[in-house]
Specification:
The strands form 16 sheets. Strands 48, 50, 51, 54, 55 and 56 form a 6-stranded mixed sheet that branches. Strands 58, 60, 61, 64, 65 and 66 form a 6-stranded mixed sheet that branches. The protein contains 1 helix and 75 strands. It is flat, with a radius of gyration of 49 Å. Strand 17 and strand 18 form a beta hairpin. It is mostly beta strands.
Length: 837
């Protein structure tokens, strides 16, 4: 052909004999409808004609497949020789309809349906999961991903090849977002490859190769550490090599996959490779010798199978240097007996080693009055030439190591004052300044260290004849004496006594014979003990049986609302009244007790948890009649908190009961009622209620006629949210009364679309269902109700591929008469001279 054409143009040539109006294809049999073109690529149709007035008869027009969208138009150009050229090169991605007419009539193949897509760029495709040298075993799934999101439009094709025993399994899953997941299960040992193309072009790196090894039992592999760490704490010293013997001779596979290692540093970016050498058949030696200190994780693998001993944790550090240790917080004096001596040893720069600490008592001389250890001039033991150290009880020695392993915290508690020798060694060598000498002084009096122990410490009310008892522990309070001062009607010394229990502990007992208030004021070394003075009340016997209690708060309380009850103590005798409350989990609820008269009290509380509570009421520390009380806790009455589960009650079919659930667990105590009234208000129907778990009630209405009912749901006579509402009872569906008719149920011309009507006038209630089956899954249908008759539904469709289709129509999930319908979609140009499919 002599006509020059652009480099990116594909020309489809058709011939037109103007005189005979016969059109024939000159150069290609490609069907334009079966091809895709790239945006910017020109499609040219050459029309050969010798008619001098061809320009007046030829016309071309372009429309978008999207109705109403504007689109670019084609050009009609004069050819270099005889004939004309229709040229179309749009700049946007779309499907276009190109019509070419001669004297108002379409040429053969017109209108042409042209699909233009963006250019694809296979080089931008990313593959992850293969191509990194990883080995797989037979039957182990090989999974990788392909990302085409940046590559434009195109078709992805993945072909797997390799040795087989049986049929290997391969699956390519489209994730729907431009990415794909490929799964391949090899069936034989050997080299396998994946040939990946996109838009008929290979992507970078294709084909990708993988190695598939035989399955092996890695539990049969024995790993033995050949070297012994030089450091005492089990660490290696930098320069020393860690060696392992890997023995796989017990494995029965025909050929072993390669032994590989993975080494990673824990605290730095240090790089280190392990060396592998063969000792004998299926026996290997692995050697790791890093040049930098760190903790390394060594993993051993046969192919992709990790050995059960993985990972091996190997610590490498510098040679120990005790002189680089730093001792922090160890002062020569200022320490006290029975208090911890605490200091730190930093070993970050000291290499690898183990910390050892010894504590010895040198001198036990101290000033009896001040409690301080004698200084060097007063001590019979010179600090420069001390006497032979003698072991002394210094308490438990606690050495703790922080997370990074470089900071050690040392604590011990000296029991006696004096001078102590502290020897600190790192890797069996003294650190700089070791041994250290510190002075420990006697403990000073501290009343805040005294503790009060016993059940009566916080008890305030007692009967005459009872005994108040408390233990005072002054073991940690230092030197001093216990001072006790009692106020109250004490008749003789036998009513109060103090017993020395030893070890700094004392027991106090008070049993007065006269009613009234009593106070115990306690001190240590002229300082008050915390919690003192202690106050208590002793009373004569009371008759609690005469206590009267009344009020709803004794049995019932609403969540979050104040509940009250009254206590009348007339004629019971004099005693204090107390009340306490707790829920099922033991959590206490404050109870307020207010005296409203000489012998009357008002008690009030507010509960905040929905569980039942226990209420104790005591008079003179004795439970009143009926105590403890079981208090039932309910929600406050709130009908607006009732709700219909699902949000609304659905319309029903005649003959089927209307059923729905109402939840009332947050509405408080009350009764639910349901009633439906007919549209003429002449008939009323009560609902049947069935209580279920968790505050849910099943409501059921049996409505005998088709009607629009007004339905009311009330809680203790009050409408709940959404009540009243309208409820329809409809005729049952009659699929046999549905009729479907129209040309679109039997045949349709491709590109023209088709339609048919479904009449449901006498079909009762139901939902129309239409499902199409055919080439490539069928096509989409649109349904609309006719404005003139809403019981007739217009169904429209526009198939894009020729073939036989099956249309299934259902009403209320049941097949209508005549369904399924067989539909033939055809192309009229198939039987005419022109472009072939």
């Amino acid at each position: 052909m002599s006509t020059a054409r652009p480099a990116n143009a594909r020309r489809v040539q058709s011939a037109v004999d103007a005189c005979a109006a016969a059109l024939r294809d000159l150069t290609t049999s490609d069907d334009l409808s079966q091809q895709s073109y790239r945006v910017g690529q020109a499609v040219e149709i050459k029309i050969n004609t010798s008619a001098p007035d061809a320009c007046t008869h030829l016309r071309c027009e372009v429309n978008s497949d999207q109705k109403g969208a504007e689109c670019e138009q084609a050009e009609l150009l004069k050819g270099e020789q005889e004939g004309w050229i229709v040229r179309f090169a749009p700049s946007a991605e779309d499907t276009y309809i190109l019509s070419v007419t001669w004297a108002g009539k379409h040429i053969s193949g017109s209108p042409f349906r042209l699909r233009f897509v963006s250019a694809s760029e296979p080089k931008k495709i990313v593959v992850r999961g293969i191509g990194d040298g990883t080995h797989w075993t037979v039957t182990q799934p090989v999974q990788f991903s392909v990302d085409t999101r940046s590559a434009g439009k195109g078709q992805l094709i993945v072909r797997a090849s390799g040795p087989t025993q049986g049929i290997p399994k391969f699956n390519l899953h489209d994730n729907g977002d431009g990415t794909y997941k490929a799964t391949y299960i090899p069936s034989a040992v050997g080299e396998h490859s994946f040939d990946i193309t996109y838009a008929d072009e290979p992507i970078p790196g294709s084909p990708f190769s993988i190695t598939v090894d035989a399955d092996m039992d890695v539990t049969a592999v024995r790993v033995q550490e050949l070297t012994i760490p030089e450091a005492v704490d089990g660490s290696y010293i930098v320069g020393q090599a860690a060696e392992f013997l890997v023995d796989a001779s017990a494995c029965t596979v025909p050929s072993l996959p390669p032994l590989t290692t993975r080494v990673s540093a824990v605290t730095s970016d240090s790089q280190c490779k392990a060396m592998i050498s063969h000792v004998s058949e299926q026996v290997y030696r692995v050697r790791l010798q890093p040049s930098e200190p760190d903790t390394f994780l060594l993993g051993l693998f046969f192919g992709s199978e990790a050995l059960p001993s993985n990972p091996h944790r190997l610590c490498f550090g510098r040679a120990p240097e005790a002189s680089r240790c730093q001792v922090l917080g160890l002062f020569p004096d200022g320490w006290l007996t029975m208090q911890p001596v605490s200091f730190h040893v930093a070993t970050a720069e000291a290499g690898v080693g183990r910390l050892t600490v010894d504590v010895n008592l040198l001198s036990q001389r101290f000033d009896d009055e001040s409690g301080r250890a004698l200084n060097g001039s007063e001590s019979p033991h010179s600090l420069r030439s001390p006497a032979s150290p003698s072991r002394a009880p210094v308490g438990p020695l606690d050495i703790s190591v922080e997370k990074d392993g470089s900071l050690h915290t040392v604590q011990f508690k000296p029991a006696v004052p004096g001078y102590y020798n502290i020897s600190i060694r790192w890797a069996d060598r003294h650190v700089t300044g070791s041994p250290f000498r510190i002075g420990v002084a006697g403990h000073q009096p501290d009343a805040t260290q005294c503790r009060l122990i016993g059940n009566d410490v916080h008890r305030q009310f007692f009967k005459i004849g009872d005994s108040y008892s408390v233990i005072v522990n002054c073991e940690r309070a230092g030197p001093g004496q216990l001072q006790v001062n009692v106020t109250g009607a004490i008749v003789d010394d036998s009513e109060f006594c103090v017993d020395d229990l030893g070890d700094g502990c004392y027991e106090l007992n008070l049993a007065p014979s006269q009613p009234g208030d009593y106070t115990l004021d306690l001190g240590w070394a002229d300082a008050a003990i915390p919690g003192c003075p202690l106050r208590m009340y002793f009373a004569n016997d009371v008759d609690v049986s005469k206590c009267l209690l009344e009020g709803t708060g004794l049995a019932h309380a609403e969540l979050g609302n104040r509940a009250e009850f009254q206590v009348i103590t007339r004629g019971t005798g004099l005693a204090p009244l107390s009340a306490s409350m707790a829920d099922e989990k033991g959590r206490s609820v404050p109870v307020e007790v207010i005296q409203t008269g000489p012998a009357t009290h008002c008690c009030a509380y507010t509960v905040h948890s929905p569980s039942n509570h226990i209420l104790h009421v005591r008079y003179g520390n004795v439970d009143v009649p009926g105590s403890p009380f079981q208090v039932r806790v309910t929600q406050p009455f709130a009908p607006e908190r009732c709700k219909i589960l699902g949000g609304r009650v659905k319309d029903s079919i005649l003959g089927k009961p209307v059923q729905f659930y109402v939840e009332s667990k947050e509405a408080g105590p009350g009764n639910l009622s349901v009633e439906a009234v007919s549209s003429d208000s002449q008939k009323r129907y009560k609902g049947h209620l069935s209580q279920t778990v968790n505050g849910k009630t099943l409501c059921r209405l049996n409505l005998p006629t088709v009607d629009r009912y007004t339905t009311s749901i009330k809680y203790d006579g009050v409408h709940i949210a959404g009540s009243p509402f309208k409820l329809r009872v409809l005729q049952p569906p009659k699929p046999s009364m549905v009729m479907a008719f129209g040309q679109g149920l039997s045949n349709c011309e491709i590109g023209q679309g088709g339609d048919f009507i479904v009449d449901v006038t006498d079909a009762g209630s139901g939902m129309l269902g239409i499902r199409v089956q055919g080439p490539r899954g069928g096509f989409k249908v649109d349904t609309t109700r006719l404005p003139s008759n809403d019981k007739q539904i217009l169904v429209q469709y526009n198939p894009v591929e020729c073939g036989q289709y099956q249309i299934n129509i259902t009403w209320a999930d049941e097949v209508i008469p005549g369904s399924p319908f067989l539909l033939t979609v055809y192309d009229p140009s198939q039987n005419e001279l022109g472009l072939s499919v």
